[in-house]
Design goal:
six-stranded mixed beta sheet; 13 helices; elongated
Length: 327
């Protein structure tokens, strides 16, 4: 295109990213960082060539239909694209890009932290200490479970799932995974992971279950009440992927009743609202969606967004194109 593209960014990004965007584009930033509501998203899309949303901006078919003809690129900040109706964007010839790979290590680190913290009761122990209820060391108090020799079940073996497996080996965990497609044998051998084609079997056998799958297309949870009932009584579940992957009510009921050992959650079904029953549970470690929250990851994601916009504006295919908008 001729001249600088008009770019609207829905949330606050790192200062260096915003400065660079201001140099390269006619950019409209969000100084308050307040999420845009539906009318604001529609208005933004009607008044820009490029929208830079984040994973919390729900851009569905209705919003895309109301956006008008000006917008040609949705350059999403983040790896996931389940917040965008890709079919609707394709129909309107709107290109979509994302920023894959930049948060892999950050999210895997966070996942591994929860895999350690939940069985060892770090959060529960910290609460006892802060509330002044610690009576000193005892051979029978605050007991948790060691990691070595336990089976880690990984649901979704993409970049993040593989990075978690790589870290888990160092802690002596055995690794089994469920994926839509089996990994090449060379990768399985490198990670020390075995494929389990039956998800129910993996859920039943795992001592720790961790989720790294995208949101389901039908909106149904992967781990529902039936699968939670299959889990071992002392098993733990970790979710740093998408809140909707787990039936939150069923999980809460299982945790309240002691049906499973505990959970570590970084994502929730109705963010930013967190069910108060989860907050009250001592056997749950809760984090406020911190999986990608590093300076390095956010800076790299901003660089990818800028590169995608520049490639598109210059008439070239962006390096992180999700779908071809002009097909």
């Amino acid at each position: 295109m001729e001249g600088k593209p008009a770019v609207i960014v829905t949330r606050r990004l790192l200062p260096e990213t915003e400065r660079r965007m201001d140099e390269l584009f006619h950019v409209s930033l969000n100084p308050t960082d307040a999420p845009l509501n539906r009318p604001q998203l529609i208005a933004a899309m009607r008044n820009c060539d490029v929208l830079v949303p984040t994973v919390t901006d729900r851009i569905d078919a209705e919003i895309i239909a109301a956006a008008g003809d000006r917008i040609k690129l949705i350059a999403s900040f983040g790896a996931g694209v389940d917040h965008i109706d890709l079919a609707a964007a394709r129909a309107r010839k709107i290109m979509v890009t994302n920023t894959p790979g930049v948060f892999t290590d950050d999210t895997a680190d966070m996942t591994m932290a929860l895999i350690i913290a939940v069985p060892r009761r770090f959060v529960d122990g910290g609460r006892v200490l802060r509330e002044g209820n610690w009576q000193g060391w005892s051979p029978s108090s605050m007991l948790g479970h060691r990691l070595g020799g336990k089976l880690l079940g990984i649901i979704g073996m993409g970049r993040i799932g593989q990075a978690v497996a790589h870290r888990a080996r160092a802690f002596g965990l055995s690794i089994a995974y469920h994926n839509r497609h089996r990994l090449p044998e060379s990768i399985e051998n490198m990670l020390g992971a075995r494929w389990e084609p039956d998800l129910d079997t993996l859920v039943r056998d795992a001592d720790i279950l961790t989720l790294h799958a995208p949101a389901t297309t039908n909106g149904q949870p992967v781990i529902d009440a039936r699968r939670i009932a299959l889990m071992k009584a002392d098993a733990y579940i970790i979710n740093t992927a998408r809140g909707g992957l787990i039936d939150e009510n069923a999980l809460i009921e299982a945790l309240e009743s002691g049906r499973i050992g505990g959970a570590g959650l970084d994502v929730y079904a109705h963010e930013p609202d967190v069910d108060p029953r989860l907050i009250a549970l001592p056997n749950v470690s809760l984090l406020p969606h911190l999986g990608s929250a590093t300076f390095e990851g956010r800076a790299a994601s901003g660089e990818k967004v800028i590169a995608n916009i520049r490639f598109w504006a210059d008439g070239h295919r962006p390096p992180d194109q999700v779908l071809q908008g002009w097909a």
